[in-house]
Design goal:
Chemotaxis protein chec, Surface presentation of antigens (SPOA)
């Protein structure tokens, strides 16, 4: 975990951990998952921090003016998690809007807790705000909510102007996070968490951006950064060490016949001594695979007393 500014936490731990740490203002250690290394560089994180802090300031002004109630929106954390981890931390019901940020690819999620949205509706309709009932929005309330979210998205476009001009478009609204599928469960996403206050109502809101949406912008913006000779030497040394380490890393290689399809009862009834007929032509080479990816072909044989295989050209190459 790395503090990047007052009240802002940058972390790759699960969303809820990061949100709670940001709320407490903690700068203590956070769990690090070595199976999912951080992909965001320091420069990328700083760029996103500027974008979302700009959005938070302008959106807070919008809410105060629009709702005629003192409102605040403060950036708490920018986190790298999987999509499944993000969805699992959201309460249900909540208000989730599917957003496109043309010309950026992919689908962005904008989540505002139902309590904050109901309080905003109450203020817009002349009420005092405060604690509101937890229920789905009515047909009369939905257009008001969509209009407010579209105004907030316009401020998000203003924040992204420093990286890339965007044209946000609000799509469908959903109440149950489990019904929203922006990317695959294991895909990496960047989540910006905010503390949203509308009058006396305080909750946590969030914006979820798939890595495939935001990373091309961050990388292209960072391509013009010039490194000193010392930094270039460090980078070359690191590249060499990684290359040497990968070259010496052991991997499991398999030589395979064609797969055989069998019924469940045939597999259950197999006994020692039974013969399973292979449907691999005798003139067709075997495949050499790593993690089920074919990278070469071979014919079986032996070297002395040990089984071996001889790597041969691909079948279509022989035909040519």
């Amino acid at each position: 975990m790395e503090p990047m500014g007052e009240g802002v936490t940058i972390t790759s731990s699960p969303v809820q951990t990061g949100r709670m740490a940001a709320r407490r203002g903690s700068t203590g250690p956070q769990p690090y998952d070595f199976r999912r290394p951080i992909k965001l560089s320091r420069e990328h994180v700083r760029m996103l921090q500027i974008v979302f802090e700009t959005y938070a300031r302008s959106c807070a002004t919008l809410l105060t003016t629009r709702l005629r109630a003192v409102s605040q929106l403060s950036l708490l954390a920018i986190e790298q998690v999987t999509y499944d981890e993000y969805i699992s931390t959201l309460s249900s019901p909540t208000v989730i809007g599917s957003v496109t940020l043309a010309p950026l690819p992919g689908q962005v999620l904008m989540e505002v807790p139902l309590g904050s949205m109901m309080a905003s509706l109450d203020h817009m309709l002349g009420g005092p705000g405060g604690i509101q009932p937890t229920r789905p929005l009515t047909d009369v309330e939905i257009p008001l909510v969509r209009n407010l979210l579209e105004k907030m998205l316009a401020e998000l476009s203003y924040g992204f102007e420093q990286l890339v001009p965007t044209n946000p478009r609000l799509g469908a609204l959903e109440y149950n996070p489990q019904f929203v599928r922006a990317v695959s469960p294991g895909d990496a996403v960047v989540v910006a968490s905010f503390e949203i206050r509308v009058g006396d109502t305080e909750n946590l809101a969030s914006i979820c951006l798939p890595f495939t949406t935001i990373m091309p912008v961050l990388r292209s913006d960072n391509d013009d950064v010039k490194l000193s000779e010392e930094e270039q030497a460090v980078r070359r040394n690191a590249h060499r060490k990684i290359s040497d380490g990968l070259s010496a890393a052991p991997i499991d290689v398999a030589v395979k016949f064609r797969a055989v399809r069998m019924r469940t009862d045939e597999i259950v009834d197999l006994q020692p001594g039974d013969v399973v007929r292979l449907h691999h032509p005798v003139d067709e080479p075997l495949t050499i695979t790593v993690n089920d990816h074919t990278f070469a072909h071979a014919v079986p044989g032996n070297q002395g007393t040990r089984l071996a295989c001889l790597v041969v050209p691909e079948p279509h190459e022989e035909n040519h």
